Amino acid sequence: MTPPTATATASEVRVVRHDVAALPPGWSRVERLVSEAVAGIADVAAEPVLAEVRRALYDGITSEELALATVMAGRTLVESEPNYSHVTARLLLDVLRTEALTHLAGAREQARQDEMADRYPRYFRAYLDRAVALELADPALLGFDLDRVAAAIRPERDLDFTFLGLQTLYDRYLLHEHGVRFELPQAFLMRVAMGLSLREDEREARAGEFYELLSSHRFMASTPTLFNSGTTRAQLSSCFLTTVDDDLDSIFRGYRNNALLAKYSGGLGNDWTPVRGLGAHIKGTNGRSQGVVPFLKIAGDTAVAVNQGGKRKGAACAYLETWHIDVEEFLDLRKNTGDDRRRTHDMNTANWVPDEFLRRVEADADWTLFSPDETPDLHELYGTAFATRYREYEAAADRGEIRVFRRVRAVELWRRMLTMLFETGHPWITFKDPCNLRSPQQHAGVVHSSNLCTEITLNTAAGDEGEVAVCNLGSVNLAAHVGPDGLDAATLERTVRTAVRMLDNVIDNNFYTIPEARRSNLAHRPVGLGLMGFQDALFTQAIPFASDAAVEFADRSAELLSYHAIAASSDLAAERGSYASFDGSLWSRGVLPIDSIALLAAAREDDALDVDTATTLDWDALRERVVARGMRNSNVLAIAPTATISNICGVGQSIEPQFRNLFVKSNMSGEFTVVNPHLVRDLKARGLWDPAMVADLKYLDGSLRTIDRVPDDLKALYATAFEVDARWIVEAASRRQKWLDQAQSLNLYLASPSGRALDELYRLAWHKGLKTTYYLRTQAATQVEKSTLRGTDGRLNAVPAAPLPDACRIDDPDCEACQ
Questions:
Q1: Is 351 a catalytic residue?
Q2: Active site residue 239
Q3: Is 412 annotated in the active site?
Q4: Each residue of 25-81: pLDDT tens digit?
């Protein structure tokens, strides 16, 4: 049958005739299915769904079309009652069951959900046999005790998905043969768990443990792990970081590596700082360099050409340090005007900003741009060492000892950086010194960039014996660990311990497409455990995002996550051994992430760091434990965007504030009506949820602010992202950052952007010790506030009142890079 799509409507099946002679064959089954789908779900009924289906009937409708019409009928009711999302998911689940069972049996076969507990063992073995025969699954999975594994599967958990979550699985994750799905959701999760258990001594028990965590939605592995675990090409890692050296061999090796890494679902972060700038001398030809920009265009085109088998687009981010002579051209890469040969419309870009530059901005001092072929060691220095050497190069330039350099006013360059960020969404602002001074791996190399989503901070090196950093990601669903009385710390500890083991297994079970990635990953074994559902957890506790209580919750939840993740990695070291480069690391010296804040503070030459360092757990005992036992992983914590896996789990992504309370979400599976179920629950409790409220939310873009009958406490609790002062987002991020050995993918929202607002916000992020920021989200405005930033060339004091381009919209269907 034709797979259902989220954008289809019942009327698209065929021209609808409302005067059908009789109800079609199979109508009694439809009535039964809908009755079963609404069972046990509050505030839904079968008749509204059936009425919508009847409106779509016509003479001669096929059983497949009738099934699709039933799914689409449920979908139309979601905006007025979000619980219909679960009803629709159950109806889609029946379509999927029929499709999978029929394909494996070779004849039409159907089963009710309550029959699957008995049928799963037979189905599971047949499914795995077919997947292995098609070379989609690893034959090693057949070596498991399949009776024991299948007995651990809990078919009833298929009922926990929302429509968006199940449709996302259907479209993008479940194994298929020429478009026909034969992998059911719980089989999919067990296949992932088995793939992560292949090297375990008690692999059936571990597979059951891992499956339990995934199927309960307390934790979800990253998209590449879900795509590829247990398959014949088990590339399980999310993102890769590379450094490109200043020679053609390295540059074209970089293109090749990007293509190979992107082929199996890897996102790319490339450090281009070593490449000499425009006008620099080329000794081999006695000519002048065209700079780094032409090479970036090729890199961008390479990423687009490799589309990861249609699962998601290849994507890359280029990083450049702020002292590079080409930085001003770099800022213009995403502009729609100018020489198109010096533009990269599809590639992400990010500024890698040293502290010395921000000091110059705040002092209104000059800043000198250099070509890296004349100042190569700046690339390898950070903190006080960088500042000292940079000033020495400035003095050398004044003496005429450096040929290619240019002086600019630091604040003018800063203004231009922020202007381009507002106008094009790029380059993002990321901070070199906090990433390095707080890196546990300072002894092993330098962090030269972050990744595609700015949460990974691992060292890289170019050359034949260089290292390509690899990030192995997964996220705890914080909402699944919170009740009205707060965090369930005991359950969170169990979740984190199992999750860290799963992520460590990713490293050994991984399929490496290039040797530099394998060498780096096995030597350092970094993982990135993050979280999602942060605002859902706030909703459950009735805590507004813009509040001291939310900031405190961000602090305490991140502390628990950090404590248990570090403890779990240390326990794994006792069982499996420490990672190879442990000796000499900050861990080996008893310096944990919370302690490394002091290293950053010492390198800031003034009072430029404002970070709360309060703790509540027994960190002294954990320090002793880490020094004595070691660490299995060089890095443990990173908060990724979770744009896709949060859909699977039915929660808000990552640490984001709610975009709107009612909106249409677009992604690669289509368009979905999203209604905030927490808000609907509270409005129902106060007798305020009715058709008029739905109409108001539609008209007001999901905002409660101007709806008079909504009480102020609900307006505060359900304030949307653009109604929350961005300073609250930064403050909460600062509290999390102190606990993380890596970074967090942090979007910032400004409803009324101006030069002054951007300047204050990004300086605040720097002062608050953030390592990176991600997208700047803005809304269209009728008027842009005039800024005190001077200039008559259109910079920030007169930016156009327009929304960011599609690439930077919150509902962008392609923004699913990391998870």
A1: no
A2: no
A3: no
A4: 889 999 999 999 999 999 999 999 999 999 988 888 888 889 899 999 999 999 889
